[in-house]
Amino acid sequence: MPRRKWNLNTIYISERLQECLRPISRCVLTTVVAPMGYGKTTAVNWYLEERAKAEGVLVIRISVYSDNLTIFWRSVQDAFTHAGLDFLRDYPCPTDTASGSMLTDDLCHELMGKNPCYIFIDDFHLLTDSRVASFLCTLANRLPENIHLIVASRDRFLPAAQSIRLGGKVYQIGSEQLRLNHTELSIYAHRCGTELTETQIETLLYSSEGWFSAIYLNLRILSEQGMLLDRNSDIYAMFTEAMIDPLSPEQREFLAVMGLADEFTIEMACAVMGNSDAESILTTLTEQNAFVKRLSGTGLFRFHHMMKECAERTFLTLPEERQSAYLDRFGLWYENHRQYLHAMSVYRRSRNYDALLRVIQNDAGILLASLNPSEVLAVMAKCPASVLKEHPLAILVLMRSMFNWRLIPKMLEMKSLLLAAIEEHPEMPQSERGDLLGECDLIMSFLCYNDISAMSRLHRNASAQMSRPAISIQKSGGWTFGSPSVLMMFHRNPGALSKELAEMDECMPHYYKITNGHGQGAEKIMRAEALFIQGRFADAHIELETAYAQIQDNGQENMVLCCDFLSRRLSLCTDVEQRYTFEQRYQAILRHHNIAWVNIWSATCAYYYALQREEKKIPEIFRTHHLTAVNILAPGKPMMEMIENQVYLAQGAYAKVIGRSEGLLVMCEGLHYALVALHLRIQTAVAYEMLGKEPDAQALLEQALRDAIPDDFLLPFVENYHYLKRLLENGVGQYKTFIRRIVQLGEKFELRQRHLCEQAVRPTAFAVLNEREYEIVGLMAERLSNREIAEKLFLSEGSIKQYINQIYSKLHIDGDTRTKRQQLLSLLNANS
Prior knowledge:
The chain is mainly alpha-helical. Among the domains are: 15-178, Rossmann fold; 182-233, no CATH class; 487-744, Alpha Horseshoe (Serine Threonine Protein Phosphatase 5, Tetratricopeptide repeat); 764-830, Winged helix-like DNA-binding domain superfamily/Winged helix DNA-binding domain (Arc Repressor Mutant, subunit A, Orthogonal Bundle), CATH 1.10.10.10. Helices cover 62% and strands 4% of the residues. The strands form 2 sheets. Strands 2-3-4-1-5 form a 5-stranded parallel sheet. Helix 29 runs parallel beside helix 31. The longest helix is centred in the C-terminal third of the chain and has 26 residues, at 736-761. It is globular and about 105 Å long.
């Protein structure tokens, strides 16, 4: 009988394992947890390939390569794009509960349907950020039935409490299901081309404990040397001996070098290896080696982690200069393909600081911000000062990054280095010198935040020197740190408003010139807000429309949202036509997938509805007081907290407002937020008044009046007139004239609230309906059937049908029964 041919690349999924994989299609989340080499990826890929044979099945494969969240997010985006789904392409990486919730909503909306969708995340253990595991649990609780999430990991990642909450939604596969038993080992060996004796099976089973990779390596050694390995062999030494040592020198070096990459193309391999033979080497390796795989449906290749580990050990045996040359080729490839984090990593390893600083300059601090500051500091500590001085633009980027990380001493060290670098190059063209010094002044101005005089001096200096826009500031970035108000950011001292407005008018054009218009319209918005707070509504409206016009189509959505905040507040005082409903604006913002903008809009809605005391309409994150789930930058936090305070007042949680006030006022004092502090004192006075503690309320009210009168700030009192009315009637003598004006505006404000409430009850479009018809419209909006409406109103179903037909007729709604109801609901939503 001819000897059977060895076939070590065979894929074997036992019948027992196949049965274990079947429940995946019935569960929302499946975890596959086992040590390296148990065949987790192979088993899941086999299952997905079997499922993909069914028509309409969508498979999305995501590989984790590091613990960097930004790199992982890029892998997620690429995986969805490869699967034909582009909705995540411009989606920023979610970093908090709020942005995670928005991503969950979009995933459910985009993937929901009749056809099954499988999302496979491999090597999840490499992600050490616990927020990702929490997000997956939240996602699993909300995914529709057609979506199945599969996560493979070496370590258990599901918290016990979350696992219990998920209950039957989660299915767990572990080492016991993946390891081979006696019968399965025998079948696998047969399929690989050999018949093991009973003794060999027992020996191999005992030494490997059913571990797939160890069994594979033993069979490979058996095919080449006619014997099984010693049970005491080191697995990595065994792997290297079996998989790497027998290769030709060229193949061995190829494995050693390309094993450094997470995944790679033939083009990348040719560039890094410096030859055009990569394709033939890869073809040979994938045919002969189960640990080198071409990823299904892509031009990408990937090494198994065991192969990568051994390849890296082999790489370290190469001469140091050759290692550096290969690392620099990797860096250049990543740099040219704008994979800056990867480029920084390999240039750091090769100690090519010139190239590293070049990448930092090109990245402009965007991806650098995702790194741990201590890592960046460690690299900079090893970089010679002489090399740093040759890259002044990179120094500017590092200065801005140090400011963002609140590492101010390091920021000042970088400034000193920049000035020394300029001083040491007298031959530097004057224009370049001016650009560097000007941008340095611009970055230093951030240390003067909220002090417009100091900032203005530095902005004028920068503008006078610079011939190009700054590289360290992105126009698309936010300008208000998440605050919905410009005036709340920059009103520093009571009585200084006129000076502050004049300085903003002078300062901002210089800032726009050197930042490509970043924050454009800020001075107009601030003036409009000031006029509004002084009760000059017509003038405020004119300035507001001027700001809207200035900002239009310039990409400064942050500034538009500040206009929206003022527009909504103004609408509570006078007739101001709104550009969009709350829902329309929310949907438009959602399309940008920018959680910072969503948070500003939520704050606007929360403040508006809190002033109207309509608690049910306040966005959930404010209504349920989950602001801790949102990443709010420190300068924007007091404004958000003040708005949350207004929500507490609307909910009658007066003690809560008082309890929070001291800490919030300290925060405002530290940031010189005089206007926010004024709001907080008024809110706290309200809380004391509502709890019957009039002396405390009176004392806070007097302090608020003293702070407000120099700038004629009326509206913070007017917006709380409902609560303050009785307290103001007992106004202190020296403030009576000012209080009289508050009362006059307050009465008009209350009248306006009643008018808006009536409008909300009956939108203009439904004015033609009688009371009964409009009542039925409300029940239809609750998605009740004709029968359910009839039962609620104690009418016959036939009568309800007649009423509904009259409604459609009066509102000029045509079509079939289903589409007419949809049109009615759309009309109702558009007018809500």
